[in-house]
Amino acid sequence: MEAQNLSFSLSSTIPTSQIQIQKTPSLQFLLRTKKNHSLNLKGIFLKPHFCFSPKNKKIECRNCLQRVESEGSTVLDDGVSKQVRKKKLAVFVSGGGSNFKSIYEATADGIVHGVVVVLVTNKLDCGGAKYAREQGIPLILFPKAKDSSEGWSTEDLVYALRTWNIDFILLAGYLKLIPTELVQAFPRSIFNIHPSLLPAFGGKGYYGMKVHKAVIASGARYSGPTIHHVDEHYDTGRILAQGVVPVLANDTAETLAARVLQEEHKLYVEVAAALCEERVVWRQDGVPLIRSKEDPDHYK
Ligand code: GRF
Description:
Blueprint: E1 2-5, E2 19-23, E3 29-33, E4 39-41, E5 44-46, E6 49-52, E7 58-59, H1 66-69, E8 73-78, E9 80-85, E10 87-93, H2 98-108, E11 114-121, H3 127-135, E12 139-141, H4 154-163, E13 168-171, H5 180-185, E14 190-194, H6 209-218, E15 222-223, E16 226-229, E17 239-242, E18 245-246, H7 253-276, E19 280-282, E20 288-290
Parallel strand pairs: 10-11, 10-13, 11-12, 13-14
Antiparallel strand pairs: 1-2, 2-3, 3-6, 4-5, 6-7, 8-9, 14-16, 15-18, 16-17, 19-20
The structure holds 5-O-phosphono-beta-D-ribofuranosylamine (GRF).
């Protein structure tokens, strides 16, 4: 491993002479302080080291991305035993991150044959970002905030996700529109979860409690999450999976949201498992379907 001194532009209080960068055989550079300091970077608490992307962009990180490179292939027994490489996932969040957490736990438990390589967020202090820090998952701030040098450009994000061979991007409560460049760079690979039965109660402005209030006000008797392919618009991509819950006569937006969220956790894990086991197939008209694990001739 080659070590060299680094001069860099982070607003840390530690002199650059005390910092070493190590170029590793894999993609990233590890940054460590000689005294194993924690760095406090613009109010963000960082553990002793963090990583840089191939383009030398800053990523909060505890356990470096190197661990991902060591993940090998595994045999899955789904009736037809086949060799499937663990898929690399990037999850995008803006809020509490309960869907991210359930996907991450499912990867850790082996229910989802994948690994969460990176968390992308537009809010470094949201619950999802906090959970990523606790788990040592690298964190990227995207997009760049207005009037700030913090955050990544779309170009850098696309470059890094491609370089890390990300297989799937899972949006889990990420409130920003995904730029065209990113959508085009990852065809058939980006999915989002929405808390209503699309195409009803979707599109710009339909997020959070607004969705559930509109569902209750409409008199709809059923609601539930939809996981759909992501295109350049809000909530218009083809539907991959849906879950149904009842809307009760005395529901408030909060009680309905809680019921839907519970269903979301189940549905997103099922979908992530299907993606990672290569059980998602695309109908000729562009609709994605999930091949059943038990009966390979059956699609849902
Ligand atoms: C979920 O209701 C999801 O459908 C929507 O945003 C919410 C995210 O919740 N897109 P959480 O952050 O996963 O808890």
